[in-house]
Structures
1.
Amino acid sequence: MSNRHELRAYNYINRSYADVRRDLLAQPLDVFRKATAHSSGPELHASTGVIDLSAEIVIEILAIEEPSPQRANVNVMWKASRRPGLFPTMHAKISIYPLTPTETQLELEGIYDPPMGVLGEVVDAVVLRDVARASVQRFVDDTAAYLRSAT
């Protein structure tokens, strides 16, 4: 039985939509890797209370869509590169769209299934859901910070 959990996160980039679109869509995988890069590669990181977790991830670009001239979506999937059966696999749509002429929103809408069946559901309900939310927000924050500094 699958219990999918939805997550949303967003941040703002103080740059025009055209500039953010150009920088993100040229090489989205490169942007995500650089934004989340640590010593050994892309990594998700989250801290909630006393729990501090990180996992190296493998990111895959599934599709790039432009449903309108003012919106672009990058569909991604990521999973832990080591022991993926212990971590959820995330499927997400990362969208950008203009808020003002000089500000762009970066938004992530994602779904994950807790790993390890019923045990995973219990652990997710007790603690990992907050960790998942925090790690997704950190991913979005890191990506927004990278895109803010891109020239």
Note: The chain has a mean pLDDT of 81.
2.
Amino acid sequence: MTQSNTDILLVAVNARYSHCAFAARSLIANLGALAPRADLLECDLEITPLQLAQRILAYSPRVVSFTTYLWNVRLAEATARILRRVSPSVRLVAGGPELTADYPHADLFDTVIVGEGESAFRAFCESVLTNGDDAPFPAVVIKDTGEDPATLALPYDLYTDTDLAQRTIYVETSRGCPFSCAYCTSAGTGLRPLPLSRLLPAFDGLWQRGLRQFKFLDRSFNAPVAHACAVLDFFLDRVTADTRLHLEIQADRLHPDVLKRLTAFPNETLHLEVGVQTLTPHVAATIGRSPDTAHTLENVRVLTQETGATVHADLIFGLPGEDEAAFVRSFNKLVTVCAPPKVQVNLLKGLPGTRFVREAQRFGLVFNPEPPYELLYSDAMDFATLARVQRFARCWELVHNRGHFSEACRRLRTLADGDPYACYQALTDHLSAAEGKLFAIARARLAVLLDDFLSSQSHEC
């Protein structure tokens, strides 16, 4: 176990080892003169609260920070409870998209930072380390406006050579989002591009160190247009056979200048996450998306079929006003018209601070209060219906999205005859009847079950 004396310890519990904690590195980079007194402890969800507390206290820190997300917030809370009992003098601070002004467990921490936290975290650390461990500081700090990109220090030098060689490296070209989707924690944060004069040299530094796979955190990479084009031009000038760029694209606002550059990349260089969410016009309008879903669908088709990008499209089920039949129409249209290699089918979640949570009663939505805050029922789908669609989504993920059964998927497309949802629901029933579950099925066993289904159900899809 690492033994040291560190004044400021940033704790990052990642979903898995391969992920790097961008937020914690950005907090360190923006500590100013205090940065040399800070250290980063990264781990994944395999750790227990007791183990994490032991690792934290090995640093003898005066300040411990946690960046919380829906997958790690309960672990962070449990660890904070232990630290309160065994080392009550340590000052605890938490932030991240999981936390809101009415966060119910704020009393576990000395300070909770709501919103982008670089400047508030620096102020907290300065207060403690300058004025003493008992220095007063607000229990909740709310950053409504976000950080100023012109003054943010970039964290890319904090990625180690091991990080670059073995892990997913996250980068960003902007803060915030220009849109106001009712289900999203970034709604209303305002798009703030990072200055290209500092951003592109930083990317070049990563490139010179050998990095070829960049995963962008931008919620809407293709806005604003000129900014997106400049970043894409940077990589087009350098692209190699092993270059991989992971971008999140807004399909309903795809400018021709951006599309021209996306098309110019070699096949399989780009991985595009495209948040379709719904193709039901009035539902799209309700959630803050463009109601011109025909335009959205056409842009997804273009991205999928007229570029060399690997396109992963997202759909949400359980949206207010969308019953199962309407969701099925969205799904079938997306799959048959665009045929993206991957379609993520996600149950709506009531993320803290979002409009759907604030106005849940008005929208007819009821969510599980525990992470990951799944929808329990909506105005248009009851619990049993959501469970049925969830089973379908699991089957679709196992068979189609994971890419292990390309020939079987081709045969399923033929059998589906324009209704892939019904075909995969029939497959879901087949798997459930044979195994009694849709998890922990070995790939070889799944292949046998697929073959059985294709042989026996060819006239029923």
Note: The CA atoms of residues 127 and 136 lie 8 Å apart.
